[in-house]
Amino acid sequence: MPVMKTPRNVFLEITNACNLRCAYCSHFSGPGDVQADLPLETWRRFIAELGRLSVMNVILSGGEPFCRPDLREIVLAIAAARMRFSILSNGTLIDDAIAAFLAGTGRCDQVQVSIDGAIDTTHDAFRGEGNFRKAICGIRALQDHAVAVAVRVTIHRRNVHELEAIARFLLEELGLPSFSTNSAAPMGLCRKNAAQTQLTVAERTLAMETLLALASRYQGRIDATAGPLADAQLWLEMEQARRERRERPADRGFLTGCSGPMQTIAVRADGVIVPCSQLPHLILGRITEDDLGEIWRQHPELQALRGRFQISLAEFPFCRDCPYISYCTGNCPAIAYNLTGRTDHPSPDACLRRFLARGGRLPEVARRQ
Amino acid sequence: MNGGSTMSGSREKCVIVNPLIVLREEFDDGALLFDPETGATYGINPIGVLVWKHLDGCRTVDELAGIVCASFDAVPAAAADHIRDFLKTAVALGLAGFAGA
User: Fold this and answer.
1) Which of A26, A236, A243, A275 could cross-link to A188 by cystine, CB 3.0-4.6 Å?
2) Residue numbers in A near B24 (CB within 8 A)
3) Complex ipTM above 0.85?
């Protein structure tokens, strides 16, 4: 896969501060959970560098980006550097004034707000009391100013039985054009709270069945790049390929599950450059000391992540004799790292053979049989 | 507006890039023109990149064609026409404008 000359997208964790402590947050308690934020001037200088590198999209995250009192200045610096931006947020601090400001920039692609329930008790179970109401107020403020809202539903043990109600609430009541899903993943605080938050095999099967049905009913308005829906879509395709004994597709059978290092890079709240916000331990440099373009082109850790595409799954004892090996991608290197200590390894969490061996079921295939 | 007549006429106006548009050279064989106001992107080939870099509002189509001929092998005889079409599209999309306009 070709590597772009400069990153197209850059994630900036502009603050480590957050007004919430969600039980499955991937950020807190990990290496990206740093003590001090950078001053505005440092971010401004770096954003200007991004502009010189012809970066197109900046994704502001944290922590909670709206905790940062000088968020507007950061956004204006992005606009001045001829880029667009998105914001990843819990939504609770968004009011009419900031929504109007974001709309006024003309450069906001979307604000992603996390909503995990159709009612307050479900959403607040892991995010804290009162935060459902605040997040919905935030979404309505954005909608009032025609700022695109991208809701992300993190599926966990407390909302997995409410997915239909959540879809109805988001798409019909709130009138969102679409939403996306993932699930509580073994990173950050979720590792400490895995028993309470992470889906069991049976719940994962249920989530896959329900989400596939909902995705069909709502015709493309529910999507996912990770979590049960993404797993179901990929695994069903793999199962079909296995049954038909298809040839190995060009992009399968190797660690091809993540193309992020070809086009995206990230910066922690302390200015440390990392390949991805989910790989905050992989220190590539610092924005106060290093040249981003040079890191992008030459850093051995980035080269190694890109080199995953050349690593055959056949090299791993974990994959030996797997009937899906020719159709698998190895999935997310960050989850692989959290579970195996290696980024150059397939993610055990995304292993279809293991899922089935533990009693998991592929929903549509099971019905067809 | 200064310069001569229209781009398709005998005395052509010179074209200049819209300074808001970002030229993003992603790979060796191509690039994007990115409009941050709309998020729209337009793919261009290496000849387009070369032309774009010389759209300073001072060069005619024939001069641009000369630059292309000096930089690439086997440039077709209709190169000036192709460049004229490219500029026409770029102006229509707001990626560039006429110098002095």
Assistant:
1) A26
2) 6, 8, 54, 56
3) yes
